[in-house]
Amino acid sequence: MKYACLTLLCLMPAMLEAQADSLKSGERSPFLLGGRLHYGFIIPHSKDIAGVAGSHPRGFELNVQWLLAQEKHTRHSGVIAKRGFLFHYINYDHPDVLGYCLSLAPYIEPLIRPDRRLYGSIQMGVGVSYLSKRYDEKTNPTNLFFSTPISFLLITNAYLNFKINTRWDISLGFNYNHISNGGMKTPNKGMNFPTYNIGTAYNFSPVAITRAPKTHAWKQAKRHYYYAQAVGTIKTAEATPAIPEKKITWQLGAIGMAGWRIGRLSALAAGTEWIHDGWTRENLDRAGDPTSAWKGGVLFGHELITGKVRFTVHLGAYVLNPSRTTDPVYQRYGLFYRIGRHLQVGSTLKAHRHVADVFDMRLGWVW
Known about the structure:
4 helices; Porin; mainly beta; 17 strands
């Protein structure tokens, strides 16, 4: 639980930065309070969970938002956005096996044509979830989705919003939710559950939104960038009949990336990472196998950059994986916040196809 909370705490500065800047400058970012009702379905991404994947998750969401429409927030990106926190309760419609979840997540939400009455938005965030039902070999053997009470939440959502008046908005949306413990404990199939939703938001301090001016200043600024990150996380090697005690293992390493801005918000990046996988090392030792547990890979992908917040989607391929305990390719989804000009903190989820492998914590330096 403490590592999940650390992830959330490292990302909170990104959500609070606008409010702190507003207080310093005497300008308050407009504050909104909203709620949504959700109804969805579970994607049966593995035959092992198909028997309990026919449920229809339903629940409600509360969120607090700050509208970042001032020139200081839009001068580089030309994009008006919201930052905030959401809390949701989801009942998985299968009380004996799946129960319910309570989640908290900070997010960033760029707006599409917010000066119009009908406008769109895309929301991305990473948070933590409490799960009321988990796998138990004797009492709950069919819940292969979750094995820990605290897991990670990854969200990518799309909304269509309509301004009723200066204070009230209504919205229709589609949420893609992923919950997993990142492989810290097995079984960990993880759950992908899209939901449809309807909601409303109240603006406590309405302002007239005008389209943010889009200049070409980003083209005159430095187009290329580089960053290096230290990587660390834990993963549990479970007890076996031969070894009756579970063991906490560490995965430690580093990553280096180079990127090129191709738009106000978009960049393409490529790089390499090298990780010593303590979980693989432990399992190899248990089998008496001296094979190296180092893993090296090359990465390429897209990075969405909104001010100091960076959302990354990278595809990786192993160039070194002697143990061959995984697929040859993988994905990484990351959310980062830049402190000052160079320091970077954040987290990524590594997945092999539809199976989440591990969440990690990262500390880096950007040039």
